[in-house]
Structure formats: structure tokens, C-alpha cells
Amino acid sequence: MQMLDQFHSDPANWKLGFIYFCRADPRILVPKRIRGLGWTINLARPMAIPCVILVIGAVWGALEFIRFLGVSAESRFLVKLLLAFGIIAACYYLAHRQPKHDPTDSRPAEPPR
Q: pTM higher than 0.90, yes or no?
């Protein structure tokens, strides 16, 4: 985790001050430069853009599906609220999870117990 914090605090990894680009950081989602204001995407990861497109497509599909079903405005609001909380929870989990093995560490990963 210390290495990830070093990547995050290195100004060379922040392009234009707000675009995070770090090939050594294994995370797709990282906390914004000012922590506590949300998350941003590590554009150096090859799966970053497809993940964003997948999330946008899933949200759009869910909203279109409930509109197709003709549910009430209150139910649509509840679904939108649940989608927002789900996205926030997923971003928090992905931005704070520990990698199984630090890519900059030369020691082999410990076997699971």
C-alpha cells in the first residue's frame, strides 16, 4: 500500500494536474488528487476505458429497462438511487483494495494460507 501511495503522490503521474497516468500502479480506479473528492481513472491501464464504457452501458440499460416496464416515478427514483450507491461502493472498493503482489517488489508473493 505504501508503494501505491507513493505513485499517487508523485506529481509526475498527474498530467495537467488532474489526469492520472501511472503504468506502475495496478489499480484502474484511484482516489482523486485531493482525497475525499471521489475517484478518477488510471488512464495507463488498458482496461480503464472498457470498464467505464461497461458501467455506463449497464446504467443506461437498467434505466431503459425500468422505463420499458413503465414503473412509477418513485420506483424509478429508487432504482437510480440504488445504482448511484452501487457505483459509489464499487469505486470505493476498487480504489482501496490491496493488490495481491506489489509489481515493484522483487520478492515473490506469499502463498495463500
A: no
